[in-house]
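re: ur question from earlier - yeah i can do the single chain one, its not a big deal. heres the input i used so u can compare w yours
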Amino acid sequence: MTIIEKILATHSGKEKVSPGEIIDVFIDVRVARDFGGANVVKNMEDNDLDPVDPSRTFFTFDTNPTGSDQKYATNQQICRIYARKHGIKVYDINAGIGTHLLIEEGLVYPGVTAISTDSHANILGAVGAFGQGMGDRDIAVAWAKGSVWFKVPPTVKLVLKEKFTEGLTAKDITLNLLARFGTTEMLGKVVEIYGDVVDHLSLSERITIASMATEMGAIAIIFPPNDEIISYCKLKSGREVIPVYADENAVYERLVALNASTFITRISRPGKPHDAVDISETKGRKIDSGFVGSCTNGRIEDMRAVAAILKGRKVAPGVVLKIVPATDQVWMQCMEEGLLKIFKEAGALVSNAGCAGCASGQVGQNGPGEVTISTGNRNFPGKQGKGEVYLASPAVVAASVVAGYITVPEEIPDKPAVFTVEEEGREKQHRETHHVKKHEEKPVVLTGRVWLIDRDNIDTDMIVIWPLPTRKRWVSMLLIILKGIHILPVKPNPVISSLPVRISEAEAHGNKQWIVSKHWAFRSSWPAHSVRSTSGMPSMPLSRY
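and the output i got, formated as tokens:
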């Protein structure tokens, strides 16, 4: 079996599992963030449920660690009150990013299963563990039951041959993988990554690469733990750690071999993380701000790389740099090593630990027309504000904010660029022309029927469609009722409602009717493998978000 198959088999009481099999998986660590946490609480209370094991149940407040937004402040307080009532540990706004804390606190180590309302919970593949982001209703099921269903994914074996070029960072490795595989080639698969160069990657480097599996469409990128990882996890957990490795005769969906020596320094252009090009294509592009942080690049190694470039230098006039360490431990290390002094003297803003701008939190947002270079993992329109966001390594971000434009550390000018009003006007005209052209070339027109679900506090993770023939449908409904699942009737409405709708694979292939058909929608963690489109088109992918 592969690594993921072994972990899932062990946690489902089976000797062996195979791709496509739907199993009930015991979850070792069950987490809700301030994003989604209040809805988990609501699901628990509305259904009169209690956490089956509070010692395995946690809250992490990382999306908005300052509580500066009223919505998040409200959610956090709802979670705090619930935690006091049930004896649940809260990693509050001073702690940092939840997925990092799970590793740092020794809660997750090789072979462990963990879920979170964080879509980047697959970052735990960095230590050879299974982590997955799930919807708040699925999290509530795991809190109350201790387990949740999961479909065993196929595994791809990725081997990196040769050596990386000197100076290549883990973020560059990630962007090279994104450029190679895009967002669909690894969709719904687990990637096991091997090679001599992989064996020597540090924990921080593994975290950076694993954290962007989500942007690649993969369930997870899992690293077989080396001695360094095992020793670290033993120290942090205080347990005897037994790593999980794939069998020699493990069956993979396919094997992919890449030459690591061909990897180059890349940068993702605004809008698509996988639009990762040779940085030479963007050099000289004026920037207004920089952001260093997120679960991808908020480790102490990232902070040191930035400090090494900023020391004795200043952020360019008119440019803003925002730095957010991943955890409070990283923040304290920055203080002890004198990095905070370097950051402040350079003119940067340093916040307390958390996700910050990458999760639409308080620090790192940009405004209309603003060009940001960021170490985050996503640069979708609106994700980090209303401006444009380029994704790059911490070293490239630091070099660029000093120069005032996109560049690399080796090419930082003696004096920063100063942009005139005329140049600003040309930049604005370029952006507007670029956006109009793109819109004309790739129009987005959605037609079809939209269905209104008459219920508040529902999101796309809770909607499962079941358009079966009448007799089968009533039998299925009976089974669902016996399992205690709530059924929501769906009624047609010709007017588009405010309900978020995820575009299905069926529509992507030209189906003109929403996959939400004419029968029922279910709010449940029920396995959706029977979902079908009424038009015969492919059904919606069953990936967890």
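The two ends are 26 Å apart (CA to CA). not sure if urs matches, ping me
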